[in-house]
Design goal:
By secondary structure, this protein is an alpha/beta fold. The protein contains eight helices and twelve strands. The chain has a single domain, classed as Alpha-Beta Barrel (TIM Barrel). It is globular, with a radius of gyration of 18 Å. The structure holds zinc ion (ZN) (2 copies). The site of one zinc ion has 4 residues, from loops.
Amino acid sequence: MWSNFHTHNAYCDGKGVIQDYIRKAEELEMLSLGISSHAPLPFANKWCMKPADLNAYLNELRDLKKKSPVDLYTSLEIDFIPGVISPNDFRDKLDYTVGSIHFVEQLPDGTRWEIDGTHAFFLEGYEKIFNNNIRDTLTRYYELTREMVATACPTVVGHLDKIKIQNVDGKLFSESDAWYQQEVKKTIDAIAASGAIIEVNTRGLYQKKSATTYPGPWILEYILQKAIPVTLSSDAHHPDDLVNQFSDTAMLLQKIGFKTLTILHEGHWQPFPYNEHGIIVR
Ligand SMILES: [Zn+2]
Ligand SMILES: [Zn+2]
């Protein structure tokens, strides 16, 4: 019995309608399910919801919640771009928010630079915005996460270190570099102070874009030291990915020492014990 609070669907770039995810969650006997399409952005973008669809999305979820066989919650994965969009813009409409950094600064022509698009696009911004300085690039990325939790704290911080997918074969930096570890730890400290939950996101594993979860194991060890609650998510863009890599990741979390996963159930975020088969409800 699992739960998942980071899922997409056809309102944004996910495959299948919301009901397909509910049906799959029922089949998997999931305890809770959160629907979190990409929140509409105020500029052209291929993967987020269209601004005009937001009301239909919220209404559809309101109706589905009345008849859903699984404990269902309404959310959005919301970008944080200072002065442009933040979790504060949507939280009143939602059961919880997922806050994620996808954009860091703009190219000289004004194009918003995505950190999880193609590697070629990453390299373009890396050169044009940051003069190929990896430390400045990663510092700005983590600074934005800190600014988000300080000024527009989401319920859940999404895929904390996803920018590492661009570090193909470790060519750009090493995660054991002292400056990188300090930057990440400073960010975890800020999250600890904010009270946000950190998701352990398995998407990089099953997409084969990362050998480790977002965030990776050494960061999870520090998160445990700081006693920050964690939840397990797959960032599913297809119903078949609702619990993808959950069993292995639960075993990893147990090995690191996490005793509970924090789950939204019956209207409250609560810690639940778990094992490799799922959450344990007593
Ligand atoms: Zn995301
Ligand atoms: Zn996502």
